[in-house]
Structure formats: structure tokens, C-alpha cells
Amino acid sequence: MQIRDVVIIGAGPSGLFCAAHLPKNKRVLLLEKSSISASKLLMSAQGRGNLTNTLLHPLSDYQTSHPAFVAKIFQSYTVRDFLAFLTAHDIAFHEEDNGRILLTSRKVSLFRDFLLHQVSEQGGEILYHQDFQRLEKTKQGYFILHTLSDVFYAKQVVLATGSPSFPQLGSSEIALQVAKDFQLTFIPFYPALVGVETEKNLSFLAGSSVVGKGALFHRNTLVYQQVWPVLFTHWGLSGPVIFNSTLAMQGLPPEQFTFKLSLPKAAITKRLLAYLGFSAPKLAHYTLTTKLHRLRPLTEAKVCGGGICGEQLTEQLEVKTVPGLFITGECLDVTGKTGGYNLQRCWTSGKVVAQALIANS
């Protein structure tokens, strides 16, 4: 029986980043359900790689049940630290609107390949098509990991499986299954950063977009506002402002919310004028108001809200009641706005766990 030092369940951004920082003397194995690594990363900014955000503030940019805990984690590995990592490895980046950091190469696949190379250089191994089934811990202190095709043994385990958003990429609710098995408190996953179906029929505008101030109201209370693009669809609204608005809903029923989009004259398109039946000289500004109907499904959500609650974890993201079990990335009850915030959560949590695994050697 071969007992690995570390088995990482999931070869996504946080799992790869963690493995890339582990020393060569660690016997590290990553188990990936799908046929490729970091499939969600490849979707970032339509393949351009929005890796982090210079405006990030842990206390205001993440939805979580334990904000103070999240703030402490982000002190351990910051946006500045990650940018220094990119610079040290000659990975060119630049800043765009709203603090977004994107790859100058415009090819996030190259960064994914770099991480894979780093993992290989450090002696890590990745096995694909590993459909994880369950995890157990023995009285002797090591872990047994069961997949459909094999059984693995580990001294320490990192849970980096993500959430059920975009299940077509191989994601699932494995994290919550593990939480149940080890009696951990969690918040059920729910769609976050996703489009919304509206009470008002906006299908005439489908395919067009505008830049205006979006404002989300819970009943009559303003809960979020931002100036950024809004995309009209045949079922309602999408785009960055909408994604961040759905995160601000905190899992509450969408029908309790109203969305207002305020547009100055310069932002009013001919398509919108045709929809409204106005001529340009007669409309100096416009505010579109609609009640929300429901969120689009998990299959379209960029990420999920919910996850394993931080109160049960140390500042090294180790489960207090299950020594040797670490939680990273989207498994955590930490969900950020669109624009690089969620990838930074992966880099931060992956590095924090890597440091803990090295210290525990």
C-alpha cells in the first residue's frame, strides 16, 4: 500500500496552485474528474485570463458567513503577492477597467500550461477521469480516497473540487458530500454570478448591451449598485453588473428584488430608442425598472455561493476536527464578485494550504 504525502482532489486553479508550491520531496497526487485541468480557468474573460483585481477588498467584495475569517486568509497571500509571482516568472499582465488584471498574451491556456509545468517540475502527478466517490479517515490517521476506478491513500488531503456550477465541465457537489460525512457545517450551493430572468419582456433588445448604473433593490432598500455593462437577452439581463447583483442577493428569492438601470443620453442606443418608441432629441436620460423573476440555472452560473463554513477551519484552512484535511477554492463559503475576485480566492487559498503542508512536514 503506497501512502501519498498529499492527495489533492481537483486539478482546478486552487488545486494546481497549491501543488505548484509544494516541494519535490512531497509525494503529491492530484485527482481530476474530467479529461482536462482547470477548465473553469480557461473560460476566464473569454480565454484572456482575468486572473485577479487590484481593487480587491476582502470585507466588501466577497459574500461569506464569516467575513473576519476571510480577511485574515487574504492577509496571508495578497493580490500584490500574486502579481509578484507573475513577475518573477516573466508572465506579462496589464490592468484594464475596474481593476481587472489580464494576461498580455490574451491566452489563459498558456498560464494553465505553465501551472501544469510547475506541478510536474515539483514532482506532482495528475490522474484524470477519476470520479471521486468518498473519503474516510482511519484510526491510524491516514485517509482513504475512493474513486470509481481505484483506491488511494494519503497522509493529508486537500479538497479543491469546486462547486456544481457548469456541471458540463465536470463539477459537482463533492465538497458538500465530504462535509456531511465529516459532520461539517455548510451552506448549500446556490447560483451566483449568473443572469436573471425579468418580469419585463426585454426580448426586443436581445443581443445588445449598454453601459449604465445598475442598482439592485431588496424591496425598497438599495443593496448593490455599479456602473458597468449590462447585456440584454431573450429571457432578461446578463453582464457584469447583473452577475454582481445576483451575488448581492445572498441566496434570497429573486422575486423580492427590483433592478433599475439608469442611462445618460450618451448611453442610449438606437435599439433602445426603438424599443421605447422615442426619438433621440426627446430623451435626455432613461431609467429602466423591472422586477426580477428568477435566476438562470446552475449550468450557466460562473460560480456558486455557499460552501463549507470558515468557523470550522484554522487560518491555514485545515478542518479543526479532521486534522490533515484542508479546504480551498470554491469549496469554501467565500464567493467574490466578477472581475478576477474568485480566481484570487483560488490563488490565496491554494498558497495558504501549500504553506501549511510544508510547515507540517
Characterization of this structure:
This protein has helices at residues 13-20, 58-61, 67-76, 79-88, 108-121, 174-181, 240-248, 270-276, 341-359, and strands spanning 3-9, 28-31, 50-53, 62-63, 93-95, 100-103, 125-127, 132-137, 143-147, 151-159, 186-192, 196-198, 209-218, 221-232, 236-238, 257-264, 285-295, 303-308, 325-327, 335-336. The protein is α+β, with helices and mostly antiparallel strands and 361 residues long. The longest helix has 19 residues, at 341-359. It contains nine helices and 20 strands. The chain folds into two domains: 3-190 and 301-359, FAD/NAD(P)-binding domain (3-Layer(bba) Sandwich), CATH 3.50.50; 195-296, no CATH class. Strands 1, 2, 7, 8, 9, 10 and 19 form a seven-stranded mixed β-sheet that branches.
Helicity range = 10-25%
Largest sheet: 7 strands, mixed
Low-pLDDT segments, ≥5 res = none
The name of the CATH superfamily of the largest domain reads FAD/NAD(P)-binding domain
The secondary structure category is alpha+beta
CATH topology of the largest domain: FAD/NAD(P)-binding domain
Distance between the termini: 20 Å
Radius of gyration of CA atoms, rounded to a whole number: 22 Å
Return the string of H and E elements.
Answer: EHEEHEHHEEHEEEEHEEEEEHEHEEEEH
How many individual helices?
Answer: 9
- In percent terms, what proportion of residues is strand? 25-35%
Quaternary status: single chain
